[in-house]
Specification:
Elements lengths: L4 E3 L9 H7 L8 E3 L9 H4 L4 H12 L5 H11 L12 E4 L2 E5 L9 H5 L2 H11 L5 E7 L3 H10 L5 E8 L5 H8 L6 E6 L3 H12 L2 H9 L2 E4 L6 H20 L9 E6 L4 H12 L3 E8 L4 H8 L1 E3 L20 H8 L4 H14 L1 E3 L2 H5 L4 E5 L2 H15 L5 H17 L5 E5 L7 H8 L8 H12 L5 H4 L10 E3 L4 H9 L2
Parallel strand pairs: 4-14, 5-6, 5-8, 6-7, 7-15, 9-10, 9-14, 10-13
Antiparallel strand pairs: 1-2, 3-4, 11-12
Length: about 500
């Protein structure tokens, strides 16, 4: 069955999977969603015998129905290869009675690699399928991890170039260094003086600027997105939830049909939405636990049914979650609104004009699978320390938010359902915060000295992604005001 995609904001804008991947964002500013979420057509017991790559094919073939088997398998083969430091791609590790799904074994040691390793191949295949001759300009805002993963994925990929905007003072030292040392003739990195929401709003404004699109087309360029607003980012994320469930099945940790909980540290809502899609495909899921840091706009939304971004923006030790506009939530809103594009467009317009919107009681009732929780900085640090002292397992700050939220939920609810926590980044990416949480003796140490200490206390090797930036030269030093983002893009492209 062919799956078509439509915008969350208007009726009748059906496109193929490859067209949705190419465009990134719909012309009306909405996000592309599948007309139906397909059900898995292979028994879970069969998928339990498959490798990560084979599982990826079984999931993606159902969403990307205009790709041939050869095209899709080629994209998967090129994505999930020796760039990952483990053959499992996404290992499941049991610690303290909970399963941690390690999504940080790729080239940039964060979960974004899971989707951004394949997106360039999906995109260039989509361009060929649709006879696109323009150079595709990937325009992306990052809160820390997407940027580097996208840069690494698209560096020197023929027919593409990439421009990444990040908040100059809103990412970790390692995250920034990973980006500004990025090689590749087609890569550009720009710091902005605002926060991530400013960067994301600026990028969305450029996507929606018809005059800019005309000027670019005249010069042989067109935009696409590597952010999780692109369906080509979201679908590959569904894979690892299917994989995690079937690993538990293969290991005999659960019986077929037994439900599990997924806990996801959440900022832009894409990662937990992928878990929701996996549930809709037939994975038995009990609760989807949405873990926030002190920027708890999503926690408040699940509690009240009111999404309100009008609040102080807090810089935390888990910067990839320092987000007040969770773009992917729009896809869930569309689904629980009964796929009413008009109602979704009205709520997004209210968000743009007043910074808030309210869902109906009926919509709220449809979110019963979701539970919101949040952890402050003190709780996050305490969870890193607790896990290290009890199990010698070292986790990053984002995973620690999720772990703290889960243990608080478990204690209060008494829920003993087997639970998988999405471990979204390597602790090496946030060495200062992680080591500072483990012991005060590490405070004030140089970033790379901390990395060496982290290797000692965790008993793990320093990832190649960190080693290679120790002495790498800075290649990108442009910084601009938020208001000048479009002007900067025009200068880069010579418009």
């Amino acid at each position: 069955m062919e799956i078509k995609y439509q915008s969350t904001r208007s009726e009748g804008t059906e496109v193929t999977a490859s067209q949705a991947i190419l465009k990134g964002l719909a012309d009306d500013g909405g996000l592309f969603v599948p007309k139906t979420i397909p059900a898995l057509d292979v028994p879970l017991a069969e998928i339990a015998k498959m490798s990560y790559q084979e599982t990826a094919y079984e999931v993606m073939k159902l969403f990307f129905t205009d790709f041939t088997e050869e095209e899709l398998k080629n994209c998967i083969r090129r994505a999930y290869d020796s760039k990952f430091d483990t053959q499992e791609i996404a290992p499941l590790v049991e610690k303290d009675g909970t399963y941690y799904l390690e999504l940080f074994h790729g080239a940039t040691i964060a979960f974004k690699d899971m989707a951004l390793s394949i997106l360039p191949h999906l995109l260039t295949t989509s361009a060929r399928k649709n006879h696109i001759s323009n150079e595709i300009v990937i325009l992306t805002a990052t809160s820390g991890d997407t940027g580097k993963a996208a840069l690494a994925g698209f560096a020197d990929v023929e027919g593409t170039s990439i421009i990444v905007f990040y908040p100059k003072n809103g990412v970790s030292a390692i995250q920034e260094r990973q980006m500004v040392t990025q090689k590749g003739a087609n890569t550009k990195v720009v710091g902005i003086t605002g926060n991530f929401d400013d960067a994301q709003s600026g990028v969305k404004a450029m996507f929606n600027n018809k005059d800019l699109a005309k000027a670019m087309d005249a010069k042989g360029y067109q935009f696409s997105s590597a952010n999780s607003i692109n369906i080509g980012r979201l679908v590959p994320q569904v894979v690892y939830y299917v994989y995690a469930y079937t690993r538990l099945l293969a290991d005999g940790a659960i019986q077929e049909g037994e439900a599990v909980n997924f806990v996801v540290p959440t900022g832009n809502f894409g990662n937990i939405l992928a878990a929701f899609y996996a549930k809709n495909m037939g994975i038995p899921v009990a609760k989807l636990i949405c873990a926030s840091n002190e920027n708890k706009v999503l926690f408040d939304f699940f509690e009240t049914g009111i999404y309100d971004k009008n609040r102080e923006f807090i810089l935390t030790s888990s910067p990839s979650m320092d987000i007040l506009i969770s773009s992917n939530l729009e896809r869930l809103i569309y689904k629980i609104a009964g796929e009413d594009a008009g109602a979704t467009a009205d709520m997004m317009a209210a968000l743009a004009s007043t910074g808030k919107y309210t869902i109906t009681e009926d919509m709220k009732a449809q979110m019963k699978d979701f539970i919101g929780g949040w952890a402050d900085e003190e709780q996050t640090a305490a969870e890193i320390k607790r896990m290290y002292e009890t199990t010698r397992y070292v986790m990053d700050t984002h995973t620690a938010v999720a772990s703290a939220v889960y243990h608080d939920y478990k204690q209060k609810s008494g829920d003993t359902t087997k639970t998988v926590i999405a471990s979204t980044a390597s602790p090496y990416k946030f060495g200062t915060s992680v080591m500072g949480a483990i012991s005060d003796t590490y405070k004030g140490m140089d970033d790379f000295a901390l990395i060496d200490e982290l290797s000692k206390v965790s008993g793990t090797g320093i990832p190649q992604a960190v080693e290679e930036i120790r002495s790498a030269p800075v290649l990108h030093d442009t910084v601009c005001e938020t208001a000048d983002m479009q002007k900067t893009v025009e200068e880069i492209l010579g418009l």
